[in-house]
Amino acid sequence: YPGVTKTYAIQAGRELRVIVESEKVTDAQSDQLALEISQKIKDEMTYPGQVRVTVIREKRAVAYAK
Q1: Are 2 and 40 in contact (CB under 8 A)?
Q2: Does 44 have pLDDT greater than 90?
Q3: What is the distance between the alpha carbons of residues 30 and 64, in angstroms, rounded to a whole number?
Q4: Would you put residue 13 in left (φ > 0), alpha (ψ -120 to 50) or beta?
Q5: How far is Cα 21 from Cα 50, in angstroms, rounded to an integer?
Q6: From 7's CA, which of 14, 18, 55, 61 has a CA 20 to 30 Å away?
Q7: The whole model's pTM is what?
Q8: Long-range own/partner contacts, residues 13-18 (CB < 8 A, 24 or more apart)
Q9: Using the 8-state DSSP alphabet, how is residue 12 labeled?
Q10: What confidence score (pLDDT) does residue 16 get?
């Protein structure tokens, strides 16, 4: 997916964390992305229980005073 930089499967595949670039993905798009990924998992995979999809979009600002 466009804007995705990293993904992590956590807790034996029960949770998927998707890190996106804040400059390329808006808050609304991150909501839509989480929905699309969860729907794709539901349609294409077989798994017991549920899989949690978390999209992380953060903006960091760093400045140095010398």
Answers
A1: no
A2: yes
A3: 30
A4: left
A5: 26
A6: 61
A7: 0.81
A8: 13/47, 13/51, 14/49, 14/50, 14/51, 14/52, 15/51, 15/52, 15/53, 15/54, 16/41, 16/51, 16/52, 16/53, 16/54, 17/54, 17/56, 18/53, 18/54, 18/55, 18/56
A9: T
A10: 92
**Residues of the chain with pLDDT > 70: what percent?**
100
Q: Report which secondary-structure segment, H or E, holds 15.
A: strand 15-21
Mean pLDDT of 4-33: 92
The residues near 65 (Cβ < 8 Å, ≥ 6 apart) are none
The tens digit of pLDDT for each residue in 48-59 reads 889 999 999 988
Q: Which DSSP string do the residues of 16-66 spell out, in sequence order? A: EEEEEETTT--HHHHHHHHHHHHHHHHHH---SS--EEEEEEE--------
